[in-house]
Amino acid sequence: MKRVRDLSLLTAFLLVLLLAPALLQFNIQSAQAQNVTIDSVDVRPEVVALVESFTATVHGTYDTSEGLNIRVGIKNIFGEWVGGPSNYVTASGQAQVRGNWQLSFQVQGVKRYEDSEKGKEVDQLERVDESRNLYRRKLFVYIENLNIAFQFYSRVVYHSCGYECTRPYLDIKSAYAVPVGGEEGSPIRTGDQVDVHLVFDVSPGWTTVIRGGHAHAVVGECVVRTMVWNSLGIAPTQPWWIEWTWNGRPAYVFEELIHSSYSVNMAIRFQAPGEPTEWNFELGVKLFWIEGATATHPEEEKEMEESETLAIHVSRRDSNTLSVAITNVVFVPDPAEPGQNLDVNVQGGYAFPEGETHNIILTVQNEYFQSVRQLSDISGEGSFSEILNAVAPTTEGENIRLGVARAVIHGTDIDDEEELYVTVRAGAEAERYCRIVELRVSGGEPPQQVTTGEDFYVTADLEWSLPRDAELFFDIFDVSQPGSAIAGGQFYLFTVPGEERHSDTVYATVEGFRIPPRNLLPADGRWTLRADVRYSMGDIGEYGDGRNFDVIVVGGEEGIAGGASDWSITGVSVSPVDPFIGAGVTFTARIQVATSDSLPQTVGVSYAIDGVEQLRGPATMEDGMAFLAVSSPAWTPALGAHTVRWEVDPDHVYDDPDRGNNVRELSFTVTQTPVLPGGQPSGEQPAGEEFDFYVTAVPTEQTVRSPVTYTVTVDVTSGAPQPVQLELIGAPAGISYYFDPPSGTPRYTSTLTVTAATNLPAGSYPMTIKASGGGKERYKPVTLIVEEGPDYRLSISPETVTAKPGGKAEFTVSVSSDNGYSRTVNLAASGIPGNVSWRLNPAASTPNFQSNLTLQLSEGVHPGFYTILVSGSGAESKRAAATLRVERVIPREVLETETKVNYLAAALLGLILAAVFGGGYLAYRRVRAGRAKAFCVECGTRLPVSVSYCPKCGARQPEQGVSS
């Protein structure tokens, strides 16, 4: 029984060992793909007192196959919930679903508390910033269960001006110089006409006053003046003194200035000197205002000043002269932390005689370090912008000398140098940081070419030192339109105790419809973006690092082909339909063509206001479009009657048989305030509920047949009606559309007409109707479906690659055209394990092409199986998957130990085998002796016949069975 029991236990033990992996597998579930973003936050009203609440509407997107249940709220700088949280939920389904989400929150005002030192109640924000120029409140939208945060601001109204008021503010954004007729970055030569640009934001303050028993918002007496000095004392060739004055005017006249800053790009023209030199400018802006008198304070004049320096290298126009110059040096980050690694952006220009080729050597150095970059085989003339490395001093303070930057033409005595000074902040800040080490656009160093309507991706190599686990956020901003991010990415990091620095790569995809030009006449050009990284540790949110970079936008046509075509303008509209002061006015023209030639065709288009041409550029009619709609930039209206005039083919490039339909005009009148039905100005509406409205669209989904229409209805939910304008957001390249009418006073109905080019790729295109009016914005998603159109296929091979830590894995990604797909496909990789870097080469091209995905594994990567996803941009995002198998590498010490154990096991096995075989042999001898009486039954010695005792061992032998 004991043997049976032992055998049963042994069998059960073996079964558990065999079945354990299979049993454990039942607890493994595959995670479904889910992506949620926060795109923008609308604040209404835009200006509130510190202690008052306001409404914030959060807009975002989602991409999920398992339904969506996100917990969203708004936190202040102390990590306290001040709005929400609440949940946004969508139904689950089997297929991947993409869409827009939106939540509105009532955001609480800041708390007040008793300050014993000041002996009065103060606002909580004063604990953070005592500055009297504080004009905005920093808040964060936070998705709790996804650890996603989004920073936004609300403007602040004060009660310290006698009544409610906002404070004026001024902020210089940039300064640069451009030769007349050239582009930014072009070299400036002796004798050139030069435009010096100063870009700044300005907004006047306003105060609430009582007139006739009613409160009115009035812009205070406020003056903006600009000042320019240059080191050579050269006077401008055009008037350069720019001044704006606001003096006790009603606030609604300056509604745009009250609710947002006014961006000014001031250009002052000079003539460059006749000799090469370093030409230095000091550009300044001053803002003067009168702060109104109260019962306890007299009227007081105040001012605010901002200044910017600009160095311009003027090179010799003579083409037989060598020259090189450093024009600007930028540090990232600035200010720096003690001992921090710095990126030093050295910018400058050069000029070489015709036919000569030289090398330029750039150096950043001091007594402790040296960083060198060589620009090889340079010819002609141009500019350079190179990133070199440096280390911040450990001494803290302002303008600490870092070293010198030098540019040398190799093999000559011609050089230029710039002294470098950096600000080093308090050492406590060095305990945590996050910075951008390298930026890439679609796998290459910027600037890279991107195509209007096509997505592209930006990757950043990050390095950080943080005391505990945190979340990193990576955002891309349009520098020309500061505000909400146009793309973003994030990941959660786990800080390993004992390690000082960490690094990883994060990427963000910029959607093609965000690439300018949007609804303007197509044109190519340089687009400046900014990449920012920040980190969050619990309730602590900090800015990490930022870097500006450029991309080259293409998509417009370079020339007009000409030919025999009958171009015509079939309609012109103005939005808003009844323009008024304070509202940006846009104009739209609908163009058609009758031609026997093939499409696409590109034609020139221009528009003028009151006989003054405002814009002229190319527009392209694609094959399959029923019409082409082109829109103007926003125009700042002036009171009175005006006429807008659109013309197609203004240069008479085409042999057009009917010139009479090439021009169309529209007359309109700009009023002081919006006029409502019945002729009553909106400013005279009786007080009551706040104006609000909603927007609907029928149908919400259309399958493209050129053209298709959506019926859009805007209706009032509360308050007195106000004008509401319509626009379409997210229309892809290859789509043309217009609203008829583009605006109105609710309740009204507009028809959205959409046409599509035949080369628009097949897929589902989500778009959004945006309705704006009365300080509010409402959105309605609609979808355009293209069933037949060009597409592409995406695949990856091999299916599985095995690699070891410290090694390399390579995959081949194939992109092939289907039905004539010819747009750029941007590739991106995801699912990459930690401690693995990757490169796609090329990262973007037009089908058919192959790209090499290279994964470089560090020694710290964990063994296991990883699913690598490669995605391609397009109307329907394509994905291809492969598997990376990381082998387990056994340390040498373990191998040596296992080898020793194996030797011992072999020796022990040998002894066991020897004992078994030896015992078997002896047993065999004994049995044989017992049978034949020829051998001793004990020791096996051969015995003579009839021997009773063994002569060797003395053992007695059996008598029976003995034979002679």
Tell me about this structure:
- It contains three helices and 61 strands.
- The strands form 16 sheets. It has a five-stranded mixed β-sheet with strand order 2-10-9-4-5, with no helix packed on it.
Strand content: over 45%
Mean pLDDT: 75
| Beta-strand segment tally | 61
Helix content: under 10%
Which structural class fits the helix and strand makeup?
mainly beta
Q: Give the CA-based shape.
A: globular
Properties at a glance:
mainly beta; five-stranded mixed beta sheet; 7% helix
Compact summary:
This protein is mainly beta and 964 residues long.
Topology:
Elements lengths: L1 H24 L8 E11 L2 E3 L4 E11 L3 E8 L5 E10 L6 E11 L4 E4 L4 E4 L12 E8 L4 E10 L7 E2 L2 E11 L8 E2 L3 E11 L2 E6 L2 E6 L2 E9 L12 E4 L8 H5 L2 E10 L5 E15 L8 E16 L7 E10 L8 E11 L5 E9 L4 E10 L1 E11 L5 E13 L5 E10 L8 E9 L7 E3 L4 E10 L4 E9 L8 E7 L8 E9 L14 E13 L2 E15 L10 E11 L10 E10 L5 E9 L2 E10 L6 E4 L8 E9 L14 E8 L21 E7 L2 E3 L4 E11 L5 E6 L5 E6 L2 E2 L3 E9 L6 E11 L2 E11 L4 E7 L2 E4 L4 E11 L6 E6 L5 E6 L2 E2 L3 E9 L6 E9 L5 E9 L5 H41 L32
